[in-house]
Amino acid sequence: MNTSRSEQLYKTACGFMPGGVNSPVRACKAVGTVPLFIDHAKGSRIWDEDGNEFIDYVCSWGPNILGHCCEPVINAVKAACDKGLTFGACHKGEITLAELIKKHFPSMEMLRLVNSGTEAVMSAIRAARGYTGRDKIIKFEGCYHGHSDGLLVKAGSGLMTQSIPSGAGVTEGCTKDTLLAKYNDTASVEKLFEEYGSEIAALIVEPCAANMGVVPPENGFLEFLREITKKHGTVLIFDEVITGFRLSDGGASKYFGVTPDMTTLGKIVGGGMPLACYGGKLEIMQCVAPLGSVYQAGTLSGNPCAVAAGIETIRQIESIPNFYEELDKKSAMIENAIREKGLNVNRCGSLMTVFFNDERVKSYDEARACDTESYGRYYRHMLQSGIYTAPSQFEAMFVSYAHSDEDIAKTIEAIESYR
Ligand SMILES: *Cc1c(COP(=O)(O)O)cnc(C)c1O
């Protein structure tokens, strides 16, 4: 495979941006390759600057659940662009999108549109603190909730991939109210509530962890979190930035049948544009300015072009019969091929990770124990076979509706020829 143009561009980019990238995992450091510079994409395929074609299972880390360049979405964005890129004022689309989101996530009684998942989570936690008048929060090791200071503690993929324990530049003051629990370990949560119960504003969790590789919740884990937070008056936040509109139209909450107090959405909800949102119980959201005293704002929040992409993406999902069943079927075929190869795989709907570990991965510690060298070899094999997957052991593989039977067959062939 010729990647000379990508190599050249990467060299140039390194002179302008830290590591040549605008988000660390893209640098492909963990898998020992040069990052490919993408020229364009369509459906399940992407093409790099050297003209190499790949079946894409990164899908921009989740947003492209309909595949790349889904025509109705592109047309909606084009039409919105023609009316103005941004107004910094109210427009009808905001209501349409909010209504659509609330229809699928009824527990988001009121919501606010923002520009990124990071911002959504940061704002949700601020609202939960404002509402409860408490300071502390619980997060889980290996869960990622964006890069705001207070949440950059054992925060999954990006940091795991590069072995940065927490991250420089984050002060002790910023993280002193962040309590760490272990995913799928109820005792670790109980202990924190015993010690700090009345001081804990919020517990935030990825209802299906996908930033330490895919680690689904064990039976009863989410129900346990629901119960213990209720008992202590702590706001339960489901960070559904990945799982929202991914595991089902009502996200992980509907998929697992557990209702949080607040939810954050991103990735798919913006249809490939920078858009995310947070919302939840009315009494919590009424604490947000201008109704309440929790301040949160954004020049580009509710951007009309991003909103148009979100609306059309959700409408497409709604209009395709058996959308999630189909996605599940496609994903199961890939999962089976991986298993037959004797490799370890975790799958939840259209999210999956091949783990280079002999045991089923149920926790952050088990994920961390994986053989990342072997993952790198697997990654390079897949890439050489025309399959573009996540350049890190600790990320998910995303299957989209645009992946055809032929794509899946080609992918399975590549898996079968590994080693
Ligand atoms: C991607 C992600 C975020 C951060 O979203 P950005 O849009 O990258 O800021 C937060 N939480 C989860 C669970 C994510 O997967």
UniProtKB/TrEMBL annotation:
Give the location in the cell.
Answer: Cytoplasm
* Primary subcellular site in the record, as a coarse category: cytoplasm
Cofactor requirements of the protein: pyridoxal 5'-phosphate
* Residues modified to N6-(pyridoxal phosphate)lysine: K267
Q: Which UniProt keywords apply?
A: Cytoplasm, Isomerase, Porphyrin biosynthesis, Pyridoxal phosphate
State the InterPro entries in the record: 4pyrrol_synth_GluAld_NH2Trfase (IPR004639), Aminotrans_3 (IPR005814), Aminotrans_3_PPA_site (IPR049704), PyrdxlP-dep_Trfase (IPR015424), PyrdxlP-dep_Trfase_major (IPR015421), PyrdxlP-dep_Trfase_small (IPR015422)
Q: Does the keyword Transmembrane helix apply?
A: no
The protein's matches in CDD domains, at most eight in alphabetical order, are given as: OAT_like (cd00610)
Pathway(s) it belongs to: Porphyrin-containing compound metabolism; protoporphyrin-IX biosynthesis; 5-aminolevulinate from L-glutamyl-tRNA(Glu): step 2/2
Q: How does it assemble?
A: Homodimer.
Family recorded in the similarity comment: Belongs to the class-III pyridoxal-phosphate-dependent aminotransferase family. HemL subfamily.
In Swiss-Prot or TrEMBL terms, this protein is called Glutamate-1-semialdehyde 2,1-aminomutase
